[in-house]
Every structure is written in C-alpha cells, then in structure tokens.
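agent: user wants the full assembly modeled, not chains individually. Plan: 1) parse entity lines 2) check alphabet per entity 3) run joint structure prediction 4) return tokens. Steps 1-2 passed, three entities, 937 residues total. Proceeding.
--- entities ---
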Amino acid sequence: MSTIAMGHAGTEAAPAEKKGLWSWITTVDHKRIGILYGVTAFLFFLIGGLEALLIRWQLGAPDKTFLSPEAYNQLFTMHGTTMIFLGVMPLSAMFFNYFIPLQIGARDVAFPRLNAYSYWVFLFGGLVLNASFLFNAAPDMGWFAYANLTSKQFSPGLNVDFWIIGLQILGIASLAAAVNFFVTIINLRAPGMKMMRMPMFVWMSLITQVLLLLAFPIITVALVLLMLDRNFGTHFFVPSGGGDPVLWQHLFWLFGHPEVYILILPAFGVVSEILPVFSRKPLFGYAAMVFSGCFIAFLGFGVWSHHMFSTGMGPMADTVFSLGTMLIAIPTGVKIFNWIGTVWGGSIQYKTPMYFALGFVAMFIIGGLSGVMHASPPADLQQTDSYFIVAHFHYVLFGGSIFALTAGAYYWFPKMTGRMLSESLGKVHFWLMFLGFNLTFAPMHILGLNGMPRRVYTYSAGMGFEFWNAIETAGSLVLGFSFLVFIWNILRSLKAGEVAPADPWHGATLEWSIPSPPQEWNFAVEPTVDGRDPLWEERRAKGGTLPEPERVSGAGIHLPSPSYWPIVTAFGTAMTLVGFLMHVTLWVILAGLAITMLGIFSWAFEPADH
Amino acid sequence: MAHDTAHAMHPPTATGLDTRKLAIWTFIGSECLFFATLISNYLVYKGQSLVGPLPHETSQCMLHGQMATCEPIFEIPLVTFGTAVLLFSSFFVVLALNGAQKGNRKQLIGWLSATVLCGLFFVGMQVYEFYHFFHKGLGYTTNLFGSSFYTLTGFHGTHVTLGVIWLATVLVLAIRGKLPPEKALNLEIAALYWHFVDVVWIVIFPVVYLMR
Amino acid sequence: MDAQVATHEHAHPGPALYLKVAVILFVMTALEVLAFEVSHRSGWPMHGLVQPLLNEILIILSAAKFALVAMFYMHLKQDSKIFSGLLVFPLIIAAVVILALLLLFAYLRAQHPGM
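--- prediction returned ---
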C-alpha cells in the first residue's frame, strides 16, 4: 500500500529518528512543517501584539507623545499586515499542514517538497516585511494601502516598497500551499472517505484553498501595478496621468473581501470539530454546514465594494453590494444556528477547548451583527473610518479567528506534542483573554459612534474620548497578559505536562486513532472509513473503548526523502523579488532567478527514481 | 518531474486522477484570475489615455520631444501571423503528446521541436512588435494604453517564455530517450500549461487588438 | 466525486480530429480579422451589418475558439469532470470580475462626466 502520491526514494529499513537543525531545514514531513508554521506564526503574532500594545499605550490618555505620528502610522500598518498575513493565515496553515493529512487518513500532503517550499517562502516574506523596521521604513499607509497615499509623490521612502515586496513573496507561499492542500484533499482521502464524509475542518479548509487560489492572483496583479506606478513611471493609480485611484480600491477589495473569509473559514472548521466532541453529539446539520460554507465563499466574491461605499459609487452599485452583503448573513446565520444546535442537549464537557469554542460563537455573533449594520450604505457612511469599524473587525478577527485558533491549539496540542496542557491554566487564560478582549474592543463601538476616527495618533482632552480609551488600554494589557499565561502553559507542558494518550478527548476523527505525537508515517495501516465520525462508530461497534494504538517500527513504509532544494528555491524566489525593492537591482534579480532555476531543476530531477 | 509510479500502476488516489495533473489544472484555474485582472485593467483604461498614440486611431502625441501626429499603433497582419503560429503550436503539441503516448519517438520529437520553435517565434514576434511600437512613439509610460498594453501582453509573453523553457526541457528528455509512453504524463502536464497560454492569447488577441 | 472512475485512460482522439480542430481554429481566426477589416472599411460588403456588432462577433468567435482548445486539445471532453470544473468555475468568477469592473467604471464615468 502506498498513500503517498508523489512517492520519492523510500528506505526499506526502519527510518531512524530524525534530529537536529539540518533535519528541520530539509524536512518534508507535513507535521514538522506544520510545527514550523505554528512556531513562526506565533512569534510574528507576538510581534503584531506588541505593536498593538504600543498603539494602545499611545492612545491610553489624550495628547500623549509616547509615539510620534510617523511611528504610529508604521505601527498600525504593520499591526494589521502582520496579524493578517503573518499571524492568522499561517496559524491556520499550521492546522492545515498538521491535520488535513491526518483527518483524511493520508501519509503526507500531495507534494511534500512544495509544502516545505511554501513554508520557507512564507518565512522569507515575513522577514522581508519586518526588515523594513531596520531601515526605519516600515509600511505606514494602512494595511489596504489606498492610492494615492502610496504614490511616489506622497510616500517617497521605501516604506510602501517593503510592503509590496513582502506581500508579493507571501502571496507566492499562499498560492503554492493552496494548490497543494486543494489537491491533497481532493485526491489523498482514505478509502471510503467520500466528500460528504470529510471532517468539517477539512471541508472549510478546502473552501479556503479555493478562495486563496482565486483571490491571490488579483492582489498579485494589483501589487505589480502599484510597483510599476512607484518605480517605473506608469500612472495606473495616478490621476495626473489619467489613472484612477479607485481602481486600486476595487482590485484590493476584490482580493480583500475573500481574504476575510480566508481568515475566518478555517476558524469555522476548527470550532465545528470541537463543539461536537465536547458535546458528545455529531455536528448538527452537516450538509447545511458544507453548503453554507460554499455559499459564503461564492458570495464573498460579489460583495467587495461594501468596503468602498464612501467613494460614492452611486445608488445602483450601492444597492447591489448592500444586498449581496446582507445576503451573506443568511449562510452565516445557518452556521451559528447549527453550532448552537450541536451543543443543544449535548452532554457538555467543560474543557478548555470548549471554553474557547463557545467564546468564539458568542464573540463572532457580536462581530457579525455589527457587520450587518454597516452593510447598509447610510449607516456605513457614518461608521466608516471610525472606531466602530475597528471594533467590528476585531470582533470577527480576534473574537472569531483568534478565539477559534486558540481553541484549536488547546484541542490539538496533545496530538502534536504528546503532552496535555494544564486545564486550570487554560481556564485562567480563557477568562483573562475573554475579559481583556471585551474590555479592549467593546468600548470601541461607543467611541466610534461618538465620532472617534481610526488611524489618528492622538486626540485632545475634552472630546469625551478619555474614559473609554483608558479602559481599552487597560483591557489590552489584560489581553497581552493572557498570552503570557498561554506561553507559560505551553512551556510548562512541554517540559513536564501530563503524557497525552492517543485520544484524550474521545474524538471522532482519524487523527485520534494514532499515537500522540503521530509517527512519521502517520498511519501504519491505511485506514478505511465508512462514516462521518469514524472513531465514534468504531467505539460503538467495539463496546465503548478502543485499545491504545501501539508505536510500530515502520519498516518498509515508503516516505519522501528530505530535501534542501525547497529552501534553496524559496531563497531564490524571495531574492528575485527583493531585487525589485529599489527599482531594479539587476544582479540581485539575476542571481535570484539563477538560484530559483537551479532549485527547480535540481528538485525536478532529484534522484527519486531509486 | 521525477516520478516513480509507472503509468500501468496508478497511485491509488481517491478520485482515480493523477495528482500532478490535478495540480496543474488547479494552477490553471488560479491563473485565470491573474489574467482576468490584467485584462480588467486594460479594459477599464481603454479610451482613458490623455495623449496618443492610440491603438486604432491617429492621435496627437509627443514624438522626439515635440507634438506630432501619430499613426495608429497596431499592425494587424503581423500579430495575426503570430496568433496563427501560437494556435498551430497547440496543434503540434497534441501531436507530440499523441506520439509520446504511442511510443512513436519520431512523431514525439518532431512535433515537440516544432512546438518549441513556434513558441520561440511568437516571443520573437512580440519582441519585434514592442520594439516597433516603441519607435512609433508608444513608450511604456507614454499613456495608459501603453502601460496597460505592455503589462498585459508582457506578462503573457513571460508565460510563453516559461512554457518554451518547460517544453524544451521535456524535449531534451525525449531526445535522450527518457520519455517512454508510461511517462507521457510529463509531457501532458507541460502541454496543458502550453494550451492554457494559448487560450489566454485567444482572449487577448480579439479583446486587445480587434475590439472597438 | 468518488464514483469518478479514471477516465483519462480512454484513448485520446487521434491526429485526424486534431487537424480538423486546427483548421476550424484557423478559419475562425481569419473570420475575426475579416470582421475587424470589414468593420473598419465603409466601402466593403456587409459593413453596415458587421460594424455595430463587431465586439459581439469577436466575443462569440473567441469563446468558441477557447472552448475548442479546452475540449479537444486539453482533452476536457473525455477527461474527468473535475478538471472541467477547475477551469469553468474560475472562468465564471473571472468573467464576473471583468464585467463588474467595466460596469462599475462605466456607471461612475456616466455619473461624473470628465472623470
């Protein structure tokens, strides 16, 4: 049997335990790559969080001079860009990497080396973006980089260029990974795992990959056009040459709105795994969940202009985009209804992952409702560019994505490390995070409706903004502290946590049928599936308990060989693009292209034919 | 390209489809949006140029530092010839694939060489066209038409160039006898990419060169 | 989706069919250019008919050529439906994007002449 589609040189002997830095650099094991994604993304997430705390400190009292306006602009731009592209997306990618193959019963992803390539490109992209700080030229025009703030005339420095190149590199990583996961899910499912038997996390991941595949090419082109405007003298977004800055907004949000669903759909998937397991009930309305996910993704391509009501698109366009946006509330409502239906009447286990998952449902409802409010253009014209918007998207991105991803971290940590996280520290983490989050972001609704604009580095005393801003800053400190508890919990568990069994939560999906952490080949015997909750069905058939799976030697199992060509090719890719940072640095581009070509050819002809 | 499963024993995938073929189709789907955005950019700015030269009309433009009357830019016969060559290259590559699958080396190598030559000719045509247009007064930054035209067709040309490199690599394999029928998929995947580059041109040619 | 059997094992259609397709593609390309020329020369026959319909004629011919290459040269006609879906779904989104942007900008410019 072989579940590896891209079979590479295998070894007949039992594979030796792989250790050391080199083994991580050359790894093509989806589980290790998942851990690399997770650790890297969490570090970037902490940097993004630190940026947020600096912003909050500056706004804690009126007329503060803690940050200069320039530094403030850089911090809010980098906070947004980091959290979206280097935090939430790669944290989702950690779960894609680690759990898509395990949940569909595969040995690895479809293209293990391409998977490694994606990770390294992502890492280099994140480093390039953050390297801007070293040149005191961090992007400073907001994460959606509206023209003509970005034109050479108004942003002569390298700030915008770092943003363009950084995002371009990250886009390549996302696209390569999306092709890989899409093919993996379609093609590497274990026998019997029909599409409508896939775990909900796999379904939502699949839809996310489709969105990535269709949305990222749009931002790629938009970034190219912006680069051409800045460094090559074109006028795509420059009115003096006939260009239209509004086209940038259209192209950006054509990508940006699907991007919102790229950030939230994996979270939907994670929560749809956790709620059934800790309610001891199958997911309510499985098919409705699948189809509402597809519907959300499809509609997601037709509503981008609701980010642009204030550009004055005219009543016709406003109406169409407003209606489309309100329509999305229906499938989203279906999902929330089904999550509640799953928990309803269940035998609820109050474990930490369940706390975070329930927290997600509650917070996401609040964020969703405020979203429906500014789907209406007249309301939006009042709310746009105010703190009300900041409150809204933090309720969906933090209250939504981050709560769900944290739930996923508590849920899957035992599988990934073989250790349990502390339940008591986990609950302390939850209550601090829940409290800190709401203290930080709930008052922003009030401030926004009272007229506090977003992206201003300070405000004067006597405008009525002092009290709630002080509360928010205090809340953000609590929020930051809650993550220290989380880090402490992780470190403590890695060192001396309780040893995790294969299936600590009585899970329903295939990843719980193998030892924790899984062995390199995942499944010693390819599983066969004949239902949506295979483990529950097996447990029922065998009278309640399943034996602890044994660790096996793995002799004779073919595994893809480690390779250093992915990191070489990734380096070449990043280098080529960095060559466009300052107009054209020809030798960097040529060297980058040469390395990339060398990498691709060596990779393609790597002796894998035995 | 290295691949250890013989054609006879397909990897047991859930759909029965080859994993690499599924990947190239996924990639092609994604590329549709790449070109759609470039075409949108061209069309949105159609007729918005502040100065000439223009695609089909004589116009006022700057030539050698002074205002002059510029001729229409497009030379339809030249680009029609290039279009036909690219279309035929698609025909040639299916013949080459047919040869590869039947194990007919002569058919494989002959038609694949013809495909590569056609691709090279098309790139050459485009380079000549750009050079010619430049001398007629259409620089890269002259006006929105020039910028969006060169960007769209330039990216297409880059795709053609990559396709030529890919097909040439497969051709070298074929000449060295490393493309037996059970490995014809290596050519099929490259050919799918090549056809895609061709269909993109099937859209670009009328939309950019012929439409009003 | 699982019920899909490996359909790409079918024998691909032979060179005779490929040649037929190539000839049709060539003729259609010639028709495109002919339509263009006719619409630009007021003295030519059918000028009055073709001139106002040039864009429509070109879109139809181009779509037909696209479909021919995809169906026969890219083997979508006998290959798995999954592959067709992977091309058609993005094409729908792509068409919607292009059309929407053109409509939005036409509408905007009609409202604000001189922009």
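agent: reporting back. Chain B is about 65% helix and 5% strand. Chain B touches chain A through 39 residues (CB under 8 Å).
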